[in-house]
């Protein structure tokens, strides 16, 4: 019976995308659940369509509907959180960012947004007629429920990840199913640690206790810190995170990740989205120790707050002397997105024994090779991700400082103390001009 229903809904990609009309809102969900066969088929309809708006996030490309239409007359792509590929699209004027915090994305759809056609990749249907939402579970179910038409593309390489709830959709809720061969999933192994990365990790490790639960944000720095924690003497660490990347697999391999002391979801690591190496995909596949759930639950501060000793580790691009954090733009150039950083900054602060760390190298070399400070006197066009009122630990290779409850002059002193030495005098001069420098301070 199920197989007969399945065959009735089976379409070629070209036939399935006939459901898209000019002016529609189309959704591709997230990361490796992007539907490449459907996207390619939709791109072939370019000349007969106009003003088709597409949403996605953390898509690794190529997105053929975007690449085939540089004028954006036919397809207009928008992202909730930019991957490196989507950042390049932004640089070319081919992608617009949608401001958000991750826990609210599905409620945005539920209450305010239109989805005419949703399409995503899923693992093959199980014997009960269910499709697992795999690496996009954090947001997928809510988007599919809002869609007028649901099209699923079966990707034989996707892992089936066991869920807390809303990790599946039944065949009866699906309009069309598409099959076809796929390339292996994109690979994103943890980056190699630099000497600066190691020094930053060394600043954080003393604050982490046995049994702590970890959230490692999107980007190279949190992954590197997690990988280095795997080499520490810590034990019985837990996972509660929007993104499960390779650092958690490294912690598991090292015997550090047991989830045994978590105060909720004991013995299970919880996440919303997954992408990384093939080893990671193999590890999460049907693993009862890993569970996925919607980000409106996973990232809710009231959920995070129930985890004792919650340690949140995220990265940023710059911090100003007032404690404002920018994690999503370089000036007005868009880089990534807010993601769940503010969710975990809030939740970890509410946790008993919890701490939130924002990490960055103290300086960087620009495209001309000129050394620049990541600690700035004040922002001038950079997008503020975390307000100064929620500043917590800021970490560079020169130290970790806690800005909670600190006045403007105290923040200036603390942040300058972890700035690159080459920039400290000019930062002091700027703080003095901004009237946030204590003249009696002894340096």
Number of helices: 16
Widest sheet: strand order? 1-10-8-6-2-3-4-5
Q: Any idea what the shape is?
A: globular
End-to-end separation: 78 Å
The share of residues in extended strands comes to 15-25%
User: Which structural class should the secondary elements be placed in?
Assistant: alpha/beta
Strand tally is: 27
Mean pLDDT: 94
What is the radius of gyration? Answer: 23 Å
Low-confidence stretches: none
- Main sheet properties: 8 strands, parallel
The percent of residues in helical segments reads 25-40%
Would you give an account of this structure?
The termini are far apart. The strands form eight sheets. This protein has an eight-stranded parallel beta sheet, with helices on both faces. Helix 9 packs parallel to helix 10 and helix 15 runs antiparallel to helix 16. The model has no long low-confidence stretch (mean pLDDT 94). A hairpin with a 5-residue loop joins strand 23 and strand 24. The protein is built from 16 helices and 27 strands. It is an alpha/beta fold and 443 residues long. The chain is globular, with a radius of gyration of 23 Å.
Short summary:
Helices cover about 30% and strands about 20% of the residues. The chain has about 450 residues and is of the alpha/beta class.
What is the secondary structure topology, with strand pairs?
Blueprint: H1 2-9, E1 10-11, H2 13-16, E2 25-30, H3 36-43, E3 52-57, H4 64-67, E4 75-79, H5 84-91, E5 96-97, H6 105-112, E6 117-122, E7 130-132, H7 137-146, E8 149-154, E9 168-170, E10 176-178, H8 195-204, E11 213-216, H9 220-229, E12 238-239, E13 243-244, H10 246-253, E14 269-271, E15 273-274, H11 278-284, E16 290-292, H12 295-298, H13 301-304, E17 310-315, E18 318-320, E19 325-326, E20 329-330, E21 333-334, H14 341-350, E22 355-359, E23 363-365, E24 371-373, E25 375-376, E26 393-396, E27 399-402, H15 408-417, H16 424-433
Parallel strand pairs: 1-10, 2-3, 2-6, 3-4, 4-5, 6-8, 8-10, 11-12, 11-17, 13-15, 14-16, 17-22, 18-25, 22-26
Antiparallel strand pairs: 7-9, 18-19, 20-21, 23-24, 26-27
Helix pairs in contact: 6-7, 8-9, 9-10, 15-16
